[in-house]
């Protein structure tokens, strides 16, 4: 199942955008307020019609202005989670979920609430739930429609940072059950890096860059549009042990990582961030250095960075470490795609990302 969108309009915001989201894929629409992100979501949902547009799901047109096709919102199998959740205050959590079902089913409602970690809270009304719990009810209600497409419109913006981090972790776990295209609207670069398979950066209604997180984060124009100047690699990791010298050893797909003590027990899964400017590259494996982390990989590509210098993508398995180095350093190293190189990262430069830890099941 795939979602394909083409939208062009002159008002209320200029649009000239096209993108595709595959089966089980999460695309983040990333941009500042007023860039057109939510307008595109409303176009998919049938809540707004651009002057020229085509929205198809598995080849079936939901909207085709040229062909005069325009399914109303209630006939589009789309689940939406809004910023303010829009729950019915007089209904319980279970009733809110069943309100979205074609045929109310208490057993199915309970199953979906369990899926979003709301077991035992089915009879509570929104006022009796925390902000994070209300967000989970809104997500459960969206899933109750058995959608072909799931739309998330800044769904974490109304909760505090700690709750947002926990919800991020739950969305990551839930992804295994979301066998449909998912579109996330956000202005948070970290959120896009964490949750998305691909990112589309929108500026003034136009998609200026689309690709994997690594590709987009290495694009100078995309970085400028997002108002950021630096790149980072994010890696999943598991706490292995706490060492006497105050460091914690993690097991990551790129190899063992050491960083200043993490206040989490062994077995805890988390994510770590390595800033591109903190990575030193070497052709040969260095000896006698104080750096705890030396990661061997293959040069995937070398691209111009934002500002002076280049960004080297060092592939290690299915993951990449990004290194921002000067052009002079790149010339001296004589790096070429396909060659082996080593990333040197001090333990103090490995930071735990702000995502709620998850224990393995």
Report what the structure shows.
There is one protein chain. With 361 residues, the chain is an alpha+beta fold. Helices cover 22% and strands 35% of the residues. It is built from 9 helices and 21 strands. It has a 6-stranded mixed beta sheet with strand order 7-8-9-3-10-11, sandwiched between helices. Strands 2-1-4-5-6 form a 5-stranded antiparallel beta sheet, covered by helices on one side. A 5-stranded antiparallel beta sheet has the order 14-13-12-15-21, with no helix packed on it. A hairpin with a 2-residue loop joins β4 and β5 (60-64). α3 (106-115) crosses α4 (131-144). The longest helix has 14 residues, at 131-144. The chain is globular.
Quick overview:
By secondary structure, the protein is α+β, with helices and mostly antiparallel strands.
How is the topology of this model organized?
Layout: E1 3-9, E2 15-21, E3 26-30, H1 37-45, E4 52-57, E5 60-64, E6 69-70, E7 78-81, H2 93-98, H3 106-115, H4 131-144, E8 149-153, H5 161-174, E9 182-186, H6 189-195, E10 198-203, E11 206-212, H7 213-217, H8 220-226, E12 232-242, E13 247-252, E14 255-260, E15 269-275, E16 280-282, E17 293-304, E18 310-316, E19 319-325, H9 327-333, E20 340-345, E21 350-352
Parallel strand pairs: 3-9, 3-10, 7-8, 8-9
Antiparallel strand pairs: 1-2, 1-4, 4-5, 5-6, 10-11, 12-13, 12-15, 13-14, 15-21, 16-20, 17-18, 17-20, 18-19
Give the terminus-to-terminus CA distance. 29 Å
Strands, total number: 21
Strand content: 35-45%
Count of DSSP helices? 9
Could you spell the SSE succession in H and E letters?
A: EEEHEEEEHHHEHEHEEHHEEEEEEEEHEE
Largest sheet: 6 strands, mixed
Q: Low-confidence parts, pLDDT < 50 over ≥5 residues?
A: 354-361
- The helical percent reads 10-25%
Q: Rough shape?
A: globular
The secondary structure category is alpha+beta
Order of adjacent strands in the largest pleated sheet: 7-8-9-3-10-11
The Rg value, from CA coordinates, equals 22 Å
The overall pLDDT, averaged over residues, is: 86
């Amino acid at each position: 199942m795939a979602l394909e969108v083409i939208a062009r309009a002159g008002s209320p915001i200029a649009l000239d955008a096209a993108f595709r989201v595959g089966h089980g894929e999460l695309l983040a629409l990333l941009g500042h307020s007023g860039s057109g992100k939510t307008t595109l979501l409303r176009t998919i949902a049938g809540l707004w019609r651009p002057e020229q547009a085509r929205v198809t799901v598995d080849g079936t047109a939901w909207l085709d202005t040229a062909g005069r096709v325009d399914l109303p919102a209630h006939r589009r199998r789309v689940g939406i989670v809004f910023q303010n959740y829009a729950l019915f205050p007089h209904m319980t959590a279970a009733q809110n979920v069943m309100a979205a079902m074609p045929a109310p089913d208490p057993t199915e409602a309970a199953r979906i609430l369990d899926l979003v970690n709301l077991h035992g809270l089915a009879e509570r009304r929104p006022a009796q739930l925390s902000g994070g719990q209300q967000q989970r009810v809104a997500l459960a209600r969206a899933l109750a429609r058995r959608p072909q497409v799931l739309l998330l419109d800044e769904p974490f913006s109304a909760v505090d940072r700690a709750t947002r981090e926990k919800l991020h972790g739950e969305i990551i776990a839930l992804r295994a059950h979301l066998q449909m295209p998912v579109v996330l609207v956000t202005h948070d670069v970290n959120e896009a890096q964490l949750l998305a398979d691909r990112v589309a950066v929108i500026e003034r209604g136009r998609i200026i860059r689309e690709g994997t997180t690594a590709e987009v984060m290495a694009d100078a124009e995309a970085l400028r549009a997002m108002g950021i100047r630096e790149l980072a690699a994010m890696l999943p990791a598991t706490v292995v042990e706490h060492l006497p010298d105050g460091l914690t050893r993690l097991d990551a797909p790129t190899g063992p990582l050491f960083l200043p003590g993490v206040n989490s027990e062994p077995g805890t899964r988390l994510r770590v961030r390595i800033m591109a400017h903190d990575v030193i590259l070497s052709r040969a494996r260095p000896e006698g250095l104080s750096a705890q982390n030396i990661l061997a990989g293959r040069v995937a590509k070398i691209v111009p960075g934002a500002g002076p210098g280049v960004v080297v993508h060092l592939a290690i398995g299915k993951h990449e470490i990004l290194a921002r180095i000067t052009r002079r350093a790149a010339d001296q190293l004589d790096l070429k795609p396909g060659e082996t190189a080593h990333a040197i990262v001090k333990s103090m430069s490995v930071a735990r990302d702000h995502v709620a830890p998850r224990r393995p099941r």
